[in-house]
């Protein structure tokens, strides 16, 4: 499994923007289906966004549609999450995740769908 390292989290005010990055350890990343999840204390990790190996088949959670954008640069082994118009309810630890296999007919949104995980990066949005 590829190793993943997130960065870009921080403390911002409501309405601000942040861009999270997730760098993979291996160029096999270019074949991986990649996703972002988030988790708050005492709650389950939940799906945020995902994209196929070629940047297509993008899927978002309803709570972030229109505000967050997932993208990737396979030449840099990196997937991004651009977060705009942040709200206090976006406060969480954000994790990137990857899976090696992909069926274009499916959207993968469950934690168990992904085999590779980063360590997480904290995002705090103050109101």
How would you describe this structure to a colleague?
By secondary structure, the protein is mainly β. The protein is about 0% helix and about 45% strand. The chain has no helices and eleven strands. The protein has strands at about 5, 10-15, 20-25, 35-40, 45-50, 60, 70-75, 80-85, 90-100, 115, 120-125. Strands 2, 4, 5, 6, 9, 10 and 11 form a seven-stranded mixed sheet that branches. The termini are far apart. The model has no long low-confidence stretch (mean pLDDT about 95).
Break the fold down into its secondary structure elements and pairings:
Layout: E1 4-7, E2 10-13, E3 18-24, E4 33-39, E5 46-51, E6 59-60, E7 68-73, E8 78-83, E9 92-99, E10 116-117, E11 121-126
Parallel strand pairs: 2-11
Antiparallel strand pairs: 1-3, 3-8, 4-5, 4-9, 5-6, 7-8, 9-10, 9-11
